[in-house]
Design a protein that fits this description.
three-stranded antiparallel β-sheet; ten-stranded mixed β-sheet; binds fe (ii) ion; Double-stranded beta-helix; 8 helices; globular
């Protein structure tokens, strides 16, 4: 049953596996708040299957007021299609966070700044403090629109963030639908993007990479944009990916975008590539088309990483404040499907 009071306040009730839950849309087609589901201790496979159906069409699920441990996050995320072999091994997508992974649940990475962490599920503050580390290096992070690990040949399909301690000042996350970006295109534009291949390149430095900050402004400052210029030859790469991809579950088309490693479209100059990106992506990240999430402690959000780009708001505003959250990048075995296939 669904009751709509207006375009923005529309609540649907569901019953799955003897459990009732309701859905409150967050912004247009992007995201719903799931009301009435407690993820602590795990949920039934039937309820998870029902929530997956919602995920496939709404692309982002928000659960407020959760009191979770890493095992709960791990269990919920593993309910989505994934690469069990990768997840069961040490060779996880989140190897970037290897010093900050929860020892008993390595799928879950702990991220924090501005506080002393004493044995938080086995992770301590001696290992990592982003704010202090960046300050020491004189680095100021610029916030950038991105998909998590979209530069990987098989990017994660599902990502989650669980907020344990939000900063008191700022720290919102913005989400924009790249399905929406695709659907807004004209037939000619769709034809063009369906034919494009992205050249991802990890050069000697990040100088010259294309990056869009939270305001839709381009930046190619290598330090501001990425926070580091550190690449030894063995870490360089270059390969192509489709730009327009097809969702295997719904057939929807979306655009794959990672700011940090996007070099150009194959066969196009960098100036032409930038013009295409601006034309197709900037409308999607306009405030009227994005969902801005104001975090509360206990919020758990899982989203469809290949259908949404996201960014934080300016980290300078809360650089000195205590902040603690968990991240999961769920390894996938689903190759990218070109939209044109
Ligand atoms: Fe991210």
């Amino acid at each position: 049953m669904t009751i709509c009071l207006d375009d923005l306040l529309c609540i649907s009730w569901f019953q799955a596996a003897g459990q009732h839950f309701s859905l409150r849309p967050l912004h247009g087609d992007l995201g719903v708040e799931v009301i009435g589901v407690n993820l602590k201790g795990g949920i039934s496979p039937e309820l998870h299957a029902e929530l997956q159906k919602v995920m496939h069409t709404k692309d982002l699920l928000l659960f407020r007021g959760q009191d979770l441990e890493p095992r709960d996050e791990d269990a919920f995320m593993r309910g989505f299609p994934h690469n069990e072999q990768a997840v069961a091994s040490e060779n996880l997508s989140n190897h970037y966070f290897k010093d900050w992974r929860v020892p008993d649940h390595k799928l879950v990475a702990v991220q924090f700044s501005g506080l002393k962490l004493e044995n938080h599920f086995g992770v301590t503050s001696e290992k990592f403090n982003l704010s202090a580390k960046n300050k020491q290096a004189g680095i100021s992070f610029k916030t950038l629109w991105h998909m998590d690990l979209a530069q990987n040949q098989i990017p994660p399909e599902w990502v989650s963030l669980y907020m344990l301690q939000k900063p008191t000042n700022g720290g919102d996350t913005l989400f924009a639908s790249t399905v929406g970006a695709y659907e807004r295109l004209s037939p000619d534009q769709k034809k063009l993007v369906d034919s494009l291949e992205v050249v991802n390149r990890r050069p000697d430095s990040f100088e010259g990479t294309f990056q869009i900050d939270e305001t839709g402004t381009w930046t190619n400052d290598p330090v501001q944009a990425s926070g580091r210029v550190d690449l030894e030859p063995s870490r360089r790469f270059e390969y192509t990916q489709p730009f327009a991809i097809r969702d295997p579950y719904t057939g929807q088309k979306s655009l794959l975008y990672h700011t940090r490693f996007f070099h150009c479209f194959k066969g196009y100059t960098r100036a032409q590539s930038r013009a295409i990106i601006e034309e197709v992506l900037l409308p999607a990240i306009a405030p009227e088309n994005t969902y801005r999430h104001e975090w509360r402690n206990g919020d758990f959000i899982a989203w469809s990483n290949r259908k949404i780009v996201h960014t934080s708001t300016d980290p300078e505003k809360y650089a000195d404040e205590a902040r603690l959250f968990h991240l999961v990048f769920l390894d996938s075995q689903q190759p990218l499907l070109p939209a044109s296939a």
